[in-house]
Structures are given as C-alpha cells and as structure tokens.
Amino acid sequence: MDVKQIREVCDRLYDKRTRFISTLQEIADNFYPERADFTITKEVGREFASGLMTSYPIMSRRELGDQIGTMLRPTAKEWFHMRPQDSDRETHDAKLWLERSNKIQRKAMYATAGKFERSMKEADHDFAAFGQTVISIRPNKLYNGLLYRTWHIRDVVWMENEELELSLICRKWKPQRYELEKLFPGKNHPSIANEMKTDPFGEVNCYHIICEAQMYDGNAKNKPYFSIYYDVDHDHLLEDVGVYNREYVIPRWQTVAGSQYAYSPATIIALPEARLIQAMTLTLLEAGEKAVNPPMIATKDAIKSDISVYAGGVTWVSSEYDERLGDPLRPFTQDTRSIPMGIEMQRDSRAMIMQAFYLNKLNLPQGGPEMTAYEVGERIQEYIRGATPIFQPMEASYNGGICELTFEILMRMGAFGSMHDLPSSLAGADIDFRFESPLHDAIEQSQGQKWLQGRAILADAAAIDQSAIAMVDVKTALRDVLSGIGLPTKWLRSESEVDAIAEQNKKAQATQQSLAAMQQGS
Predict the structure, then answer these.
(1) Which of 86, 256, 333, 387 is most enclosed, with most CB atoms within 10 A?
(2) Calpha distance 403→245 (Å, rounded)
C-alpha cells in the first residue's frame, strides 16, 4: 500500500470506532470526569462533575488507579528484574550482568527529564477506567535519555494482524505550524510557509502512523516497522522511515473476541450501579432537605407578608383571622420512614461498586502468631486466586510491554556498554522480566511456606530413617528460596565456587582424619 491507502485505512478505523468512543464518554462522565472529553471539547476552567450527586464512583476509580502504581511499580524497591527466557542460560556471570543492566535501566526510567512517573500516573488511571492506555517510549531529542508520554485514547486507533499483534497504530496529532517547521525543515507543504507569516501558532491536523514493514511500499532497510508522519490538512507526506520498534505500548486489560479494543471489567460492572447511586443520592438529598426544611401550607388572605422560615424571621398574619380554623402557616406533613431504606440501598450500591473495583481484594492477608503454617498458606492461596485477575494482565501487557520496549531502546543506544562484555551464555538470548508485586510476593511467600513444611516433614522422616535426607537437594532448594526472596546475586557464590569450597572442605577433613589416625598410631 502507498501512503494514501494507509491514510484511508486510518480514517476507516476512526469511523468504525465512533460508538465505542461514546461508551468511553459515558464511563468517563461517571468515573473519570477530568478525562470526559471524548465526544465534547472541554474549555479551560470548566467545572468537573457538575452533574453528579455523589463522588463515590470517582473515588473508587481513583483508589484502583492509585493502587496500580503503588503495588506494581513501587519506587521504594526494584520492581522489575531481568532474566533470560531459557533458564539454562542463567549462569552466575549472566546474573551479574543482568543485575547491573537492571540498575542502568531503572536509572534511565526514573530520570527527571524522562517524565516516567508523570506518564505512568496518567496511564494508570486510564487503564483503571477504560481498560487500556497508550504510552509512547522514544529517545529524547538530545539522544541522551528517554521520554515517556501518555496519549489520549480518543486520538489513537490500532488494528491487529493474524497473530493478534498490533500491526498498525495511528495517532492524531495537532502540532502548531512553527513546530512542524522545526521538526521537519524543508519537508512541509509549500502552503505552510505562507500560513506561517499570518498565524505561526495555528494547528495542523497530522497523523503519526506505525505499521508493519510489509504493509507499506517504502524501503524499510530490513527494519520491521515504518514510522510515517502525514499532514492530513494538506494531504502531504512529511516523513517515512524504517524503525526497529513500534514506539507505542498499548496495555489492554480485558479483550473480547473480534475486537482490538479492550475494556475495564471494573467500570463495565460498576456502570449500572454508578447510574443508580447518582439517582438514589439525588432522591435522598431531596428527601432530607424536605425533612429538615419542609414545604409550608399557608391559608389564603391570612398571611400578610412574605413567609420567613429562617432563624429569627417574622411572618405577619392578619389580625382578623380566626385561629380556631387552624394554624394559618404550618409545615406540610411528610412520611420520612422510607429514608433509612434508601440509605440502606445506597450502602448496598457502594458495596457493589467497591467489589467491582476489586477494592476488597487488594490487601494481602496478614498472619497472626496463633495461626498455623497450613492456615497461613491457605489464606495466601485464597489471596492469589482473588488477585490474579487484577495483576496477571497488568504484569504481562503493562509492565512487561514498558520494560521490554525500554530495554530494546536502551540496548540500541548502547546504554548497557559494549556487546563484547555480554556473557557468552546471554548471546542471542531473549530477555524476560520478572516483577515484584503483591501477587508475586504471595507466591514467593507460598514457596517459603512449602520449604518450611518440607523441612519439618523431612526432619520427622529422618528420625525414622537417616537415608531419607538424601531425597532432597538442599543446596538447590536453598538457592531457589534465597533467589525468591530477592537476595542479590553478588551476595551468593556461583555453583562452581560452592562445589570447589565443598571439595576443599572434604580434602581438609580427609587430611585431618589422616593426621588423627597417624597420631593415634604413633
């Protein structure tokens, strides 16, 4: 396809997504009002959530969005660790190189100029509300660091290939004319130069397209993707170059067959309750206001002034009115017995919203001194079953996508040093990432509980038969447990060093026994 056909594909993707954008607008109106500009244009200073009666749905989304970053990317510790996909390649030298590279990548990600924390905060709340987010990762303009940005889902469309991988990503972009002249000197449409004279800050509608190399007719120079910048207003190609990566990471929480777009199971489930709780709250507010400040009944021609029901107010009554006919001014009798029932229904709706946002499953169960190891293990397993639907897709597509693309860009920038320093066991190896999260902490804790249980069983068996001790490879088990709790590799000796020390101790023990035997013989 040529560039005009690629542009037509992007236009069709935007047209087909119109109904989906309306759904996202409805979700944003109820859960994320500051992001509710999918189908409307917000003016600066416009009041958020002016039509909502209660903020509980917004607070629930905020809680889940904050928890994503707090639990999956805690800044107080190293939350990701590199490792080769093939565990046989994970030698001691490989572990040392990976730990060093891990620190380099973390430093690059959290550099102030990279805007990582700001972008991830925006992305976390998009992910919690809409089930997907769009993040770009690229070298900065000085090529001495990275730049992270989160883009509005409204502006980005994408499509999948036959292997469910993203084959095309298109982002709407509205740069000002002077920005285009600065970014693409000598490549802009001739009319841009004329328009610059009158309005240099006017916006130009553009597309940034990332597509697979085989989709586009240009010369990718053996690179898997194309990066295309296209001026939509002037139907003009600005740039098309081959690139090594997609530049965009699009984590998706839960997808459905036949659609490349995802959704948030939290907001989809909670949306009916959010609508209901807004209506219920409005009714309860009106009922409470009537109970505190009830409507009044006044007798015609008996009231001679305005009704003053405020503190210290005076209402004048005709002196000719016969009060034996009843009070000239009295409150309207109301039945407020249904208000407690409404409050109870509102409480039930809040509980449903809390469950929809998994807020009842985000805390790791704490073990008490009176609990047995079996009981603690069962509680951890229950937590893992409840937390897996939350953390598993986030780690695979969210944290995994960000870390893998960051590693690839830094590797091509030479941030990890010379390739000649790469251990031979890692040459040509695919690098994976392991993450620290409440889910993985629980799994590692579960492994620790298994080790304690196994050791107790082994001790009981050894009391009957000493040969039972040989059934367990204690060194291997201990190494796995120490690695599982996050002990740095440089604190551990390699297997060859441990074997050499064991052989040396065996020789020293044999020498000592020989000397003792000689001394006894003498």
Answers:
(1) 387
(2) 13
Q: Are 189 and 234 in contact (CB under 8 A)?
A: yes
Q: Determine the 3-state secondary structure of 96 from DSSP.
A: helix
Mean pLDDT of 279-292: 86
Three-class SS of residue 457? Answer: helix
End-to-end CA distance of the chain: 95
Q: How far apart are CA 298 and CA 327, in angstroms?
A: 8
* Pair 174, 203: CB distance under 8 Å: yes
pLDDT over threshold 60, residue 364: no
- The model carries a pTM of 0.78
Three state DSSP letters for 459-489 = HHHHHHCHHHHHHCCHHHHHHHHHHHCCCCH
Q: How far is Cα 410 from Cα 245, in angstroms, rounded to an integer?
A: 12
The per-residue pLDDT for range 483-499, each reduced to its tens digit, is 665 666 666 777 777 77
DSSP assigned state of 365: P
Q: Is 445 left (phi over 0), alpha (psi -120 to 50) or beta?
A: alpha
Instruction: For the chain, give the percent of residues with pLDDT over 90.
Output: 46
Taking all residues of the chain, what is their mean pLDDT, rounded to a whole number?
85
What lies within 8 Å, CB to CB, of 224 at 6+ separation is 212, 213, 244, 245
How much is the average pLDDT of 68-84?
85
Helices (H) and strands (E) in the chain, counts: 14, 14
The Cα–Cα gap between 80 and 440 comes to 11
Cα 124 from chain centre? 4
Distance CA 41, CA 11 (A): 20
Split at pLDDT 50, 70, 90, the class of 461 is confident
The residues, any chain, with a CB within 8 Å of residue 431's CB and separated by 6 or more, are: 82, 83, 84, 85, 98, 404, 407
Alpha carbons 209 and 135: distance in angstroms, whole number = 14
* pLDDT confidence band for 368 (50 / 70 / 90): low
